[in-house]
Amino acid sequence: MLSDNGSPVSLHIAGAVVEIKLNRPPANALGPAIIEGLHKGLDAADALPAKVIVVSSALPGFFAAGADIKHMSTVDAASFGAYGDALRGAVERLANHPAVSVAAVDGLALGGGLELAMACSLRVAGSSARLGLPEVKLGLIPGAGGTQRLPRLIGRGRALDIMLTGREVAAEEAIRIGLVDRLVPAGTALDAARELARELCAASSPAQRAVVRTVDAAYDRPLAEGLRYEAEQVNELFERGEAAEGLRAFIDKRSPEFV
């Protein structure tokens, strides 16, 4: 199913996958219309409920070039703060969504665009992708999670290098340092993300959510506490029946039928 075609954000729903496609020429600046569209996409994911969310772009050469600088330059401090809160709200809602999320990045993903991609569970990049957080060149810092997520993905030193210089990172470097998870030929990121989504849909959603929670706990909790949390999640999955189906399917030599 395709909806809102021609709007700043279009939605495509196929089975348990919701595809959120940015389409605001010339560069998918993350203005109020795209923020609203992101929420509509996440509403659709809630309603299904979706197992996978794919975030992509309809514009050749751009994933998203960042926050809406033209909008930012015309507002007062209060409105600037409200805009920042709105953008952060959409990014954090995506980051905390129970569905696995995949960013399909072809072309530029800068500033808020990279922050949106980093909020996804996984990132697939085309070989022409260029990523960066250039806010220091505007007298600002990343404000939609970039200062927190980038060092968690690639380490403090590499994150500082990228943020202090504001430089762009080519796709080959991005895969090497762990900023993206899969590298594919230019122009094929969306196809690869869709294939990954199909692969993800075959697994247990509760188990996937538990994986994300426990991996996040590795960053937020001491090791001993994280190990206890991991054990709790394993036991909970066994008790709810997902594991029973997975184990029985393995014994029966068939594909599991997860909810």
UniProtKB/TrEMBL annotation:
Reaction(s) catalysed by this chain's protein: a 4-saturated-(3S)-3-hydroxyacyl-CoA = a (3E)-enoyl-CoA + H2O; a (3S)-3-hydroxyacyl-CoA = a (2E)-enoyl-CoA + H2O
GO molecular function ontology, one term from the record: enoyl-CoA hydratase activity
Keyword Lipid metabolism: yes
Domain of life: Bacteria
First-tier enzyme category under EC: lyase
A Pfam cross-reference name: ECH_1
Keyword annotations of the record: Lipid metabolism, Lyase
Similarity field: Belongs to the enoyl-CoA hydratase/isomerase family.
InterPro entries: ClpP/crotonase-like_dom_sf (IPR029045), Enoyl-CoA_hydra/iso (IPR001753)
Function text: Could possibly oxidize fatty acids using specific components.
E.C. code: 4.2.1.17
Protein name as annotated: Probable enoyl-CoA hydratase EchA17
GO biological process terms on file: fatty acid beta-oxidation
